[in-house]
Amino acid sequence: MGDSIFLRTADAAQMVGVGEGSFRTWARRRDLAPARVVRMGRARVAVWDAGEVLAATGRTPRPWREQEQQ
Question: What is the value of pTM for the model shown?
Answer without folding.
Answer: 0.78
